[in-house]
Amino acid sequence: MTEQAKPLVGVIMGSSSDWDVMQHAVAILKQFGVPFEASVISAHRMPDEMFTYAETARARGLRAIIAGAGGAAHLPGMVAAKTIVPVLGVPVPSKYLRGEDSLLSIVQMPKGVPVATFAIGEAGAANAALTAVALLAANDEDLAQRLVAFRTEQTAAAQAMTLPV
Ligand code: RP5
């Protein structure tokens, strides 16, 4: 799926089965009007495509790559190995270990090739996208103001919370 002619953020995932989680990253990028592309790139089923994607990412204009995978989740780390574009890793819940395996696979990168790793599941996917927005906002004041407004809305919602006591 390609959403814009010139995407700034790439959203990749190891399988279409990751979409339920990764759609939350895409929803944030849409909400903020950030041009993005989204596709299935599997580390173990499509290794050549994975390397080509990573090797061409910077020249194609990508400024961040959000990579989600489950199980023995090599995708974010291997993509990070082939590009200096920041890689934001999202651990996808797995069938047997609930994503703890995904989290440890992604977060525990050896020193020198970082993957910024987020929470397991949809919160992680959304926060990875919000981080991509924040990275882009450093050079885009309109986007920065939309991010400030997003935070302000959350503050107002919390302030309006009541308890049943
Ligand atoms: C990983 O294996 C994917 O990221 C997915 O989370 C997991 C299972 O993939 P499917 O067997 O559902 O295609 O590569």
Largest sheet, in brief, is: 5 strands, parallel
**Helicity, in percent?**
40-55%
- Report the end-to-end length measured between terminal Cα atoms: 48 Å
User: Number of domains in the coordinates?
Assistant: 1
Oligomer: single chain
Number of strands: 5
Please count the helical segments: 6
Low-confidence stretches: none
Q: Report the β-strand fraction as a percent range.
A: 15-25%
Biggest β-sheet: strands ordered side by side in the sheet: 2-1-3-4-5
Give the mean pLDDT. Answer: 96
CATH class: Alpha Beta
Give the second-level CATH assignment, the architecture: 3-Layer(aba) Sandwich
Q: Structural class of the secondary elements?
A: alpha/beta
Overall 3D form: globular
* Rg result: 16 Å
* CATH-assigned fold name: Rossmann fold
The H/E string reads EHEHEHEHEHH
Bound molecules: 5-O-phosphono-beta-D-ribofuranose
Describe the overall structure:
This protein is of the alpha/beta class. The protein has one domain: Rossmann fold (3-Layer(aba) Sandwich), CATH 3.40.50.1970. Helices cover 45% and strands 15% of the residues. It is built from six helices and five strands. It has a five-stranded parallel sheet with strand order 2-1-3-4-5, sandwiched between helices. α5 (122-137) crosses α6. The protein binds 5-O-phosphono-beta-D-ribofuranose (RP5).
